[in-house]
Amino acid sequence: MDQWITTSEAAARLGVKRGTLYSYVSRGVLSSRRMPGQSESLFDRTQIDSLAAAKHDGRRAGDRLLRFRAVASGVSAIRDDRLYLRGRDLAELCAETDFAGAAKLVLGASSAVTPPDVDGSVVSGVPVERRIPLTVALIAAADPLRADLSDIGDRVVGLLPRLAASVPEIDFTHPWIDLLATVLIDNGLAASTTAARVAASARAGVFDALLAGYAALSGPLHGGAPATARVLLDVVVGGTAVDRALADAVVGGRVPGFGHVIYTGVDPRARIVLDRVRADRPDSQAVAAAESIARRVGRPMNIDFAGAVVTHELGLPVRSGEVLFQYGRTVGMAAHAAEEYGEAPLRWRGSRTG
């Protein structure tokens, strides 16, 4: 059975008009793709069938609890290789505001609620990539209102300075760092945001939902990916031939930091960050090395490699890219959790395979 079906077939399966189908795409409920020589957009059969099942179950209002449903989100949307946060084009948003402004927009926050104090000496004793999750865990343990589902935006805005303070090795006010955190706020239903939504669906408090997201983010295929990209960049800048470095870096048939499962062309987040670095430091050895690797790979850099360029140029630890991923994505995960609190609890159906 083919994974991809045409627009006409998808609309027929859902019993909706083509225009309704495209509105699902713009809202982030469904994803679509275009293939050369194909007159219609293509849709993932599994997504369509799952949404059809959710629509069928929804007709029986009494059975909605713990039934499968599609996840609709207004946090971000991806269309034609462009990323939008709350309907704002990411490039335009970055040109107009900083991370703090973008965070308030995405979270719908108007002020900041200061979290409880925690023992910083405990946090400083762990590796940099574990400090933000540990800080949030300690704050959750100390907060008697940790299960309160109100004022999510204001509480998370108040949390952000505490997270930055937990990693003094990084200057979060540096314009490149601020920009990198901004473009990392959200990118659709990635593993981390999905994990946070699942926890929020069970009505875990926002801090505990964030911890679920950080757990997913720690995997080498997600938030841990910038570290492998950074290692590749470091060895090329250090003088290793590109072909030799690539031979050592490829894992599972993939070159870390190149290509993306969502973007068919250039990752817009990488473009925004690299354009800023090029403008500020035109003689950057890291950018030159990254471009030489990109020419050899034949695919555009993604945000993992752009982040590696930033952390290399600023002399930050190898795992600092993961820290910045956690910091920026904290906003997106919290926004998704806040959305999920207003939905019926999530439940997936397993499919029999044997």
Automatic annotation (TrEMBL):
Is Nucleus a UniProt keyword of this protein?
no
Query: Pathway it acts in?
Result: Carbohydrate metabolism; tricarboxylic acid cycle
Question: What family classification does the UniProt entry report for this protein?
Answer: Belongs to the citrate synthase family.
Name any one GO molecular function: DNA binding
> What is the name of the protein in this document?
citrate synthase (unknown stereospecificity)
Q: Which domain of life is it from?
A: Bacteria
Span of domain Helix-turn-helix: 4-53
The entry's cellular-component GO terms read: cytosol
Kindly give the InterPro entries that the UniProt entry links to this protein. Citrate_synth-like_lrg_a-sub, Citrate_synth-like_sm_a-sub, Citrate_synthase, Citrate_synthase_AS, Citrate_synthase_sf, DNA-bd_dom_put_sf, HTH_17, SinI_DNA-bd
Query: What keywords were assigned to this record?
Result: Transferase
Enzyme Commission code(s) on record? 2.3.3.16
Q: Would the keyword Transferase turn up in this protein's UniProt record?
A: yes
Please provide the Gene Ontology terms (biological process) for this protein: carbohydrate metabolic process; tricarboxylic acid cycle
